[in-house]
Amino acid sequence: MSEVKELVKEDFEKEVLESEIPVLVDFWAPWCQPCIMMSPVLDEVAEEWSGKVKIVKLNVSEPENQEIATRYDIQAIPNMKVFEGGNIIKEIIGLQTKESLEENLKNIS
Fold first, then answer.
1. What residues have CB less than 8 Å from 98, skipping those under 6 apart?
2. How confident is residue 2, by pLDDT bands cut at 50, 70 and 90?
3. Four-point Cα dihedral 84, 88, 89, 93, nearest 10
4. Which of 2, 7, 55, 105 is the most buried (most CB within 10 A)?
5. Which residues form the catalytic set?
6. What number of other Cβ atoms are within 10 A of residue 17's Cβ?
7. Cβ of 48: how many Cβ atoms within 10 Å?
8. Structural domain includes residue 72
9. Which secondary structure element, helix H or strand E, spans residue 70, and what is its range?
């Protein structure tokens, strides 16, 4: 079973930019109701797509993570960016259904 890992600034480069497989980063905050509603969807997709896409979360309300949020121009949450080879290959903004999220991921290697 794959888990959605909560990242901190120190993990970002290794877990996302240097990952061997595509990584969906969920930029979120605990006060964001749509972000909370997105969490079980991400858990399900992480389990079903294990080995194909890694799913991680980065809390943008934590001061140490705000530099990363600024670097990737996070202006609204939930905001999910898919990284491959250290580059953003897809951006998904707003609350998604499981079906919608999987549709966004289906053409990713």
1. 41, 44, 45
2. low
3. 130
4. 55
5. 32, 35
6. 12
7. 12
8. yes
9. helix 66-71
